Amino acid sequence: MLFNSIAFAIFLPLVLSVYFTLKTRAQNFWLLLASLVFYGWWDPRFLLLLIVPTVIDYLCALQIHRAAEPKRKKSYLLFSVCTNLTILGFFKYFNFFIGSTDTLLNAIGVHHALPTLSIILPVGISFYTFHELSYVIDVYREDLEPVSDFWLYVLYVLYFPQLVAGPIARAANLLPQLARPRRVNWQLVREGLLLILIGFFKKVGVADALGPVVDFRFLNPASCSGFDLLVALYLFSVQIYCDFSGYTDIARGVSKLFGIELLINFNRPYFAASITDFWHRWHISLSTWLRDYLYIPLGGNRDAVAKTYRNLMLTMLLGGLWHGASWTFVVWGGLHGLYLAAHKFLLDRTPIKSESLPTSLLDKFVLLLKVVATFHLVALTWIFFRAESFGMAWKYLYGILTWHPATANSPASLLGLRITALCVGIFALDIAQEFSHDEVFILKQRWFVRGVCYASLIILILIFGGLGANIPFIYFQF
Amino acid sequence: MPIFRSSIFSFDTLRLEKARPKGFFRALALTLALVFVAEVGARLLVHSVSPYCEYWEDESGFRFEAYRQHIMQGAAPNLVIIGDSTARFGIDLQALRTTLPAAVDSYNLATPANYPMACHCTTLPLLNEPYAPPKVVIALFSPYGFLATDKAEAQILNSPICKRVESPFSFYKEMRLLWLMRVTPYVKNSSFAKESLKQTWAQRGFTPLIEATPEPSARNPSPSTSLATSSEIKVEKIQVIRDLALLARNRNFKFILVIPPLRKRDKIVEEMVERMGYLQDELKFTLLDFSMSPFLSTNHFLDGVHVNKDGAAIFSQELGKRIYTQMPELALLK
């Protein structure tokens, strides 16, 4: 079920109205049922795929906790991790590895077409696999007590607002909230509803409106001018941010209505002044997951400098591969790894400055330059993220670099009233959130300012947005 | 009253008994009032064309609705061109007019992605009652538009205008209160925002090729690489041509089906021409096959099925000559 669908508009009030009449344990069963319906709406067959590793992980976590010998604990952990990664690997990466092996064999002169399977990628498999892995690993590290209540654990994995596209839940944050009675007060209702409105503005208003024009340019880079391709790249940067952070906002807003707080996933990433700062603001639940369960176990920055760079690169390459089974995603991750390594290299050779905010005009200007430079570095990587193949990515990059003019076959200019209005809208919203350090700053305004803000968001969605396009969230494919 | 201590019910979760946040309802009322004002503005803006202005593309909306507005006054142009992008980009009305008598008034009603099934929803109603019929209707479709419905075409057939025709009553579409969404074509794209229906009509549905956006590449296969087989041609799409021919007979206008110029003729095109030939024999319309056009070179094509601006001018003149040969009575028009 999509958040931006009529079905969800009926589903949510229905679930909420029953939820508010139940006791905690009954609420959990009700939420579990709702989550099964939410996921099964897409394809009920894949519920089984979701349930099997959930049962295995629940049992493994209990066994890890009970086992006295470290070796035994480790074997349960390995079993759980292998089960999860095998399922993920088969559904997401089987054809990718077969295709890559085939290409490699062809390159060395062995011409034998390996068979591929037509596998449907279950929605959100990368997300719920990480939910489950974090739980088992936390139990293994003794950072967390395993839950004895099986149904509570199943709800932790299946909790519908965060099931298919995150934020990637951490058991330490979510499980206690699911276990104790929830209270929903005015503050949570207001924050929840505002986050839902902002999420819809980002997703339906901005991302769905930009999607078709950006898609056309990425599919036909040769027929567009260099300027057009550059603008489309900026617009894709906005689109993917709005699409994903919009989903997160809706998920967090919906969850607040249930009295459950999900982790913050985005913190105005395009205002980052460095690439390291960017990863503290973009898809925070993934970057912290990769840090805690991959980068630090690899050694983090505790060993020699060369190893730190290696760990950074490995983490980002695997982070790229997590996004999709394609070498373009690996390159995307690799570029970010390179940026992070380069930034670390520069930081290690620069005297440490205090973290105070810039006061002089020059400092502010330097900060602005850093923000603009970081944005452009990130935007460059989006070419590989969005392009269907390497060939298309190179064509796109070549189109920008050669800056060829518009031809008779070029599409109309992107800079119309609609796109400008939406970009100004999202920029104004983000800048206000950034300067107020508050994502729900609107709630602190006078009533007439709030009214104007709400109405502006609604009117922008209705007039300029991509209503009716029913474009799935980009991150669903991951 | 018995107390069920083991009940699963409880009303403890929702705690809204404390004082409401200040101005909660006033902010809500202001929001509704502002949306209402915007809605009134939207209704004033689109009242002339609603409820028809929900096409898959803004330009199509202007093209079709300008035509509808004009023919609602009782007079249709003598010659109307219908079809998909092959007609939209392939017909240069100015070049066509040079070969026809000056009194022949023409309008290009074709629009990109207006494949046979979409044409059935968008164009046929404009040729039918209660609107005045034109004298001649020229239809051009890419032969590849008669293949199986792909994702892009499915989206087009899912557009409100197509749904409206396919299912005359839809609660969601008919009862929806917000007309704000219908303003989108008027403000979405700056080039069309400035263009009124009157201007569109004045240009006779012709938009300079420079602004053209080709259809998705899936619909523009290079004939040399097409691997489609004959079984892929869909009968329900052929049926649209039959419906057009029958409508022409009923409404007494001349129907000319044109196979557009193609860079290369493949099996699909040959089968299409053959099938249309059978239909022509049965329903007695005129079929003009330009799929092999010696007057055009490969330089005159944008891709496998679309001619460029120069190609459009040459093809339109050739088409005009053939039409005039077929219909010398056009000279009698005043």
Question: What does this 3D model show about the protein?
Answer:
The complex is a heterodimer of chains A (478) and B (334). Chain A contains 17 helices and 1 strand. Chain A is mostly helical and 478 residues long. Chain A is globular, with a radius of gyration of 23 Å. Chain A has 2 domains: 6-182, no CATH class; 187-266 and 358-477, no CATH class. The mean pLDDT of chain A is 87. Chain B is an alpha/beta fold and 334 residues long. Mean pLDDT of chain B is 77; it is low at 188-194 and 208-230. Chain B has helices spanning 24-46, 58-71, 85-90, 93-98, 116-122, 124-127, 151-157, 160-166, 171-175, 184-187, 190-193, 197-202, 235-251, 267-283, 309-326, and strands at residues 14-15, 79-83, 106-108, 136-140, 254-259, 286-289. The radius of gyration of chain B is 25 Å and the shape is elongated. Classes of the chains: A mainly alpha (478), B alpha/beta (334). At the A-B interface, helix 2, strand 1, helix 8 and helix 17 of A face strand 1, helix 1 and helix 11 of B. Strand 1 of chain A pairs parallel with strand 1 of chain B.
What is the average per-residue confidence, as pLDDT of chain A, rounded to a whole number? 87
Taken from the alpha-carbon principal axes, the silhouette of chain A is globular
Number of strands of chain B: 6
Query: Mean pLDDT across all residues of chain B, rounded?
Result: 77
Helix content of chain B: 40-55%
Helix count of chain A? 17
Q: Beta-sheet strand percentage of chain B?
A: 5-15%
Query: Largest interface, counted with CB-CB under 8 A?
Result: A-B, 50 and 51 residues
Rg of chain A is: 23 Å
Distance between the termini of chain B: 91 Å
Total domains of chain A, how many? 2
Number of strand segments of chain A: 1
The H/E string of chain A reads HHHHHHHEHHHHHHHHHH
The residue fraction in helices of chain A comes out at 55-70%
Biggest sheet statistics of chain A: none
Query: What would CATH call the homologous superfamily of chain B?
Result: SGNH hydrolase
SSE order of chain B: EHHEHHEHHEHHHHHHHEHEH
